[in-house]
Amino acid sequence: MPSPPARARAALKRAIDLAGAAMGLLLLAPLLLAVAAWVRLDSPGPVFFRQERVGRHGRPFRIHKFRTMAHAPQAAGLALTVGADPRITRAGTWLRRTRVDELPQLIDVLQGTMSLVGPRPEVPRYVAAWPPALRERLLAVRPGITDPASLAFRDEGERLARAADPEREYLEVLLPQKLRLSAEYLAQAGPLSDLGVLWRSLRVLLGR
Question: How far is 32 from 182, CA to CA, in rounded Å?
Fold first, then answer.
């Protein structure tokens, strides 16, 4: 059972998540509505891309993102997007470059499946490749919209596009580095460090 200080930190983090997500959705509502309309007009299909990810304690959930690819419900293959993927729509190109496609995850934060800051949620296929000790640590907390690993690997798609085997490059090179950064984040995570990650993420969103 978590100690009283740990429970207090968890309660504070959840309160910050709820306040931040609610405020973000309210302030960003005009942008989110405009982007939703653009996605629908740009290509046939739903506004949101819903994909199963692994959440806290290994529970699966369906993440919210603005759809950035041509709608193909039965598509199979890599769970990775590599470079200038031909499936990416015109709207999707801008959404991915600016990271605006990630903003609907504020809904997931309100629902309690995600946090503002935390290890990025992965698909089950790649969580199965995590070392057991790290899997237990990373899945002990809610996954986040942003974290130091996602900031460090903003150009992941371009890196994978240069690889002869993108999935092998991801599993053997990028994923271990991302897991290390996520573990380092968890080792010193707190309200102040989370605010620092959010500030850096906001600067990325604003293109600074």
Answer: 29
Burial of 74 (0-12, 13-18, 19+ CB in 10 A): exposed
- Determine the straight-line distance between the first and last CA of the chain, rounded to whole angstroms: 42
Sequence-ordered list of residues with C-beta below 8 angstroms from that of 206, at least 6 positions apart, any chain: none
Q: At what angle do helices 191-205 and 175-188 cross, to 10 degrees?
A: 130
Q: Letter for the amino acid at 46?
A: P
Two tokens, residue 74: 């039965």
Length in residues, the chain: 208
pLDDT in tens, the chain (208 residues): 667 777 888 899 999 999 999 999 999 999 999 999 999 999 999 999 999 999 999 999 999 999 999 987 655 455 666 656 778 999 999 999 889 999 999 999 999 999 999 999 999 999 999 999 899 999 999 999 999 999 999 888 888 888 889 899 999 999 999 999 999 999 998 888 999 999 999 888 887 6
Please name every residue paired with 115 in a beta bridge, in sequence order, or none if there are none: 144
Rounded to two decimals, what is the model's pTM?
0.89
Residue with tokens 């304690």: 57
